[in-house]
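Quick one: co-fold with 2,6-di-O-phosphono-beta-D-fructofuranose.
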Amino acid sequence: MGHQSLILLEHLHAQKKTAMPADDLTLVLGRIALAGKLIASQLARASIVGGLGYSGDTNVQGEEQKKLDEWSNEVFVRLFEPCEPVCSLISEEMEAPKHYERSCHSRDHASYAILVDPLDGSSNTDVNGSLGTIFSIRKRTLRHRRDDVKDLLGPGSQQVAAGYVLYGPATQLIYTAGAGVDMFTFDPQISEFVLWKENLKMPARGPYYSVNQGNIAKWNPGAQNLVRHLTSRKNKNTSYSMRYSGAFVADFHRCLIDGGIYFYPGEIGADGKSKGKLRLLYECAPLGMVAEQAGGRASNGKGRILEVVAKDIHDREPVYIGSATEVAMAEEFRAEG
Ligand code: FDP
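Sure, here it is.
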């Protein structure tokens, strides 16, 4: 078989210093890994089992849902039913949180909420492009009032673990529990996630920027000037290549490995999305935690994403994320306009 690396479960058992007790982390990440395997397999078969296209429904933010969005959400809802450490699940696809029947205070130790974007980059489903799942794990502190989710709106620095699954040519699981970033690749021959890189560090600067430049006319002047700078070709510090996949997870993953910046700025104008498009709790904050744990940065253009407090579970936030050099550059341009 030729495997010398640890599989996910062995790696989790060997963990010592994490922000979440090892037993709880093992149970929750085990469920996420299982969801990742199921979603990867469904993505591979969707075109031959009628699983592509729109479902006819819209989500809470008024976006048309793909059949695969709904299917992936259902996978999470079902898989966490028997996962005792998790008492609440918040998803991009559901208007209201799902609280499982067990109560949050029945355990001797902490209970958690999982916040998830089950299928990120869903415009890629029908064209066999890369997609992802993003997850964030937070401790529940209002344990006697599980319907009140105020305790989950605090800054992203309160996350105890976060990460994503990337569905590309390979399926990979990347997570942090506050002690560095570890990466696993799914090996279909043994149906396990196998450790690929431990304590990964993001390059301090990189050659790429990722943004939907088709929207440039709608952005704030700071973001427009940032792109002018990145493409001005005056010297090697202003000569970047653009890569944009249409999936935040895939573009962030490139930054993590090769360095660079992904951004989704706020828009100006009466009908503009002043906070951009990405959701704070289940997109920006979790990938922000991964970025910081890998030595990178995540900003809303003005300051650290992990310090932003949400008003509502579905809040959006502008995001500039990736290598420290390029994120600092983005903040400088944003400060000017
Ligand atoms: P999608 O709506 O297709 O799920 O999460 C939002 C997101 O994808 C990101 O993954 C992606 O980077 C971005 O939106 C794409 O939006 P644009 O089409 O506006 O570029």
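If it helps, The two ends are 56 Å apart (CA to CA).
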